[in-house]
Amino acid sequence: MKNNFLYIFLLFLATPLFAQTTDSLTVKKDEKVIVVTDSLLPKEEYNPLAPAKAAFYSAVIPGLGQVYNKKYWKIPIIYAGMAAGIYFYKQQDKDYDSFRNAYKRRLAGYTDDEYYGNGAEPLISNDRLINAQKSAQKNKDLSIVVTVAFYLLNVVDANVDAHLRQYEVSEDLSLVPNFEMNPFNAQTQYGMSLTYSFK
């Protein structure tokens, strides 16, 4: 039994001695690594509840999550989008009421609405008043959708921004392009190298 182990050990020891070698060309690159520490920016502690907090703040008062994330420039965009949706909703609601009241008065037999004009023929027919009501109703619904979309975008933006604010980008992990010259056929080889260094 001892002899078998001795033969196997000698076989493993002698194998590299009798192995064939191939002709190869080795190219060495001299690389210097410069480590720069940024002492001006203090590292924040990771807070797993920060995204939920930012989303909650934005849900309660639109823009408050952006204040929490210190992204103040986003607040006017949020309020402008929501204000535009509310403005167009009110405008379309006013138009809808005007078309509806004129149509109701015509059905009651009155010819004194603003869309009738001074002549015997109306400027806008009853069918056009019905279509105008439908169009105004559709635009009101679209304005509500735009307002709600800006509100939801505000909440999602605060949540995502809080997640990304805590995402650590350090020199430990890097993805860099890699260009090498193949010495055998003198062609460039392209690639990407993912480097992760342990400390």
Give an overview of the whole structure:
This protein has 199 residues and is mainly alpha-helical. The chain has helices at residues 2-18, 50-60, 64-68, 75-107, 126-165, and strands at residues 173-181, 188-196. It has a domain at 48-170. A hairpin with a 6-residue loop joins strand 1 (173-181) and strand 2. The two termini are 46 Å apart. The relative contact order is 0.12. The model has no long low-confidence stretch (mean pLDDT 78).
Low-confidence stretches: none
What is the helix fraction of residues, given as a range?
40-55%
Global outline: elongated
Percent range for β-strand residues: 5-15%
Alpha plus pi helix count: 5
The overall pLDDT average reads 78
In brief, what are we looking at here?
With 199 residues, the chain is mainly alpha-helical. Helix content is 53%, strand content 9%.
Main attributes?
9% strand, mainly alpha, 199 residues, two-stranded antiparallel sheet
Topology:
Blueprint: H1 2-18, H2 50-60, H3 64-68, H4 75-107, H5 126-165, E1 173-181, E2 188-196
Antiparallel strand pairs: 1-2
